[in-house]
Amino acid sequence: MAKEILATEMAPKAIGPYSQGVKAGGFIFFSGQIPLDPVSGEFTGGSIREQVEQVMENIAGLLHAAGLDFKNVVKSTIYLTDLADFATVNEIYGRRFPCDPPARSTVEVRSLPRGAAVEIEVIALCP
Known about the structure:
The protein is globular. The chain has a six-stranded mixed beta sheet with strand order 1-2-3-6-4-5, covered by helices on one side. A hairpin with a 2-residue loop joins strand 2 and strand 3 (27-30). The chain has helices at residues 48-65, 86-95; strands at 4-6, 21-24, 27-30, 73-80, 103-108, 118-125. It is an alpha+beta fold. It contains two helices and six strands; from the N terminus they run E-E-E-H-E-H-E-E. The protein has a single domain, classed as CATH 3.30.1330.40.
C-alpha cells in the first residue's frame, strides 16, 4: 500500500521531522495541531479559548487543502495540559461537529510543544 504525504500553506508548517498529513488506506492521518499561526509560524494564544479556536482553524485548513471538511473526520484525540479546560474545549470543538461527531479521546498531558495548553489531531476518511 502506498502512502502520500500532504502539505499545505493553509496550516502551520511542521516544526519537526513529521508531515502535516499522510494519506494511506483511504484515510488521512493529520498531525496534531497546536495554536500556531499558519503564516508567521508564531504561537498565537493566550487564553485556552483563543488557543482552541486557532487549533480548529488549523485543522480546517488541513481538511480544506485535502478537499475535505469536518464531516470527514472519523477520529480525534485532544491533548490538554489541564483537564479543567475540558468544558471550554468541548464547547468550541463541538461547534465544528454539530451532528454525527467522530470518535474521540481526551488525554491530560504534562506539557505540549511551545507551551501550548491544547493539541488536537484528527483522522479523516477520504471518500
